[in-house]
Write the structure tokens for this entry.
Amino acid sequence: MAVSSAPGKVYLFGEHAVVYGEPAVPCAIERRARVGVEQRSDNKLRIHAEDLSLDGFTVEYAGGANDRPDIDASESLLNAAMGYIDSAIEQVRDVTDEGDVGFDVTIESDIPLGAGLGSSAAVAVAAIDAGTRELGTTLETDELADRAYRTEHEVQSGQASRADTFCSATGGAVRVEGEDCRSLEAPDLPIVVGFDGGAGDTGKLVAGVRELRDEYGFAADTVDAIGDVVRNGEQALADGDVEELGRLMDFNHGLLSALGVSSRSLDSMVWAARDAGAHGAKLTGAGGGGCIVALDPTDETETALSYTPGCEDAFRAALAETGVERLE
Ligand SMILES: Nc1ncnc2c1ncn2[C@@H]1O[C@H](COP(=O)(O)OP(=O)(O)OP(=O)(O)O)[C@@H](O)[C@H]1O
Ligand SMILES: C[C@@](O)(CCO)CC(=O)[O-]
Ligand SMILES: [Mg+2]
């Protein structure tokens, strides 16, 4: 058996706009998904997912889009178990040229699902890394990131950026613009996360932004404006200017909100953080529900969030310096 882990992430700037070629700056955080992969003697796939928001469960099936496991579980639970993992295993089969090989896959994750902290990218990166190593191939980080990107691209119906997967594979703060992916020097940022207990569907939210952008010139301008915020944000990051970073995060949230991807609970957590004196706050990831990210070196934001109706969990997140980790 091979076991790999990969971190989740927050976006300092640029989610959604990055899908259209604007730059984005995500930052890996110390919340990880661990995936164990063991080759089977038949061609079946058995998935055991421990820490889905729902109870742990196991499915076993022969793999491929037409073969759905015959178990008594809701469609959404099956899709959750199968979507990204199924596609990640296809990447493993493709890289290693072992089309028929079956696996037992075990997933344990500290990253809430669908909440903007990049659980899909972390699971895809860790699964592809463990799966290929189980078959004797160790991928370079760039290829691993590329293969994980293909997984997200497929599951999100052809609408995905390389940002989440590159960040999860390499760790640290990164900058992604189209195919250009690089690591950034980042100061130790005082990151606080607020989680509303909910989730958003990345594919649907991305499709919604695309429709707005196609319909209205001002929505396309809003996407371009996010790119401008990101370019300013890169400078603030290089200068270690946390106050300016915060102001730009506030602006970025306003633009995301205009694009329809915020929600009442995300907005109230953002305002609670600002009222508590955070340098800035914004939603992170696809939105719709899930998490916000704020910058505050004091305990005020975390405390305020823990009393904010609609906020289920508030925690400080350390930057994850390491991306994929090979555990076994
Ligand atoms: N612990 C897990 N076990 C199995 N599958 C998981 C697990 N965590 C995440 N996934 C997969 O990732 C999907 C959620 O990905 P989605 O892109 O919607 O959200 P996210 O990656 O958490 O947030 P964002 O993309 O906004 O940062 C789940 O439906 C499931 O397919
Ligand atoms: C919304 C989005 O920009 C980030 C999701 O974490 C989608 C993507 O980049 O693939
Ligand atoms: Mg995702």
Q: What stands out?
A: The pocket of adenosine-5'-triphosphate (ligand 1) is lined by residues 49, 51-52, 80-81, 83-85, 107, 109, 113-121, 123, 164, 201-202, 285-286 (CB under 6 Å). The first helix runs from residue 75 to 96.
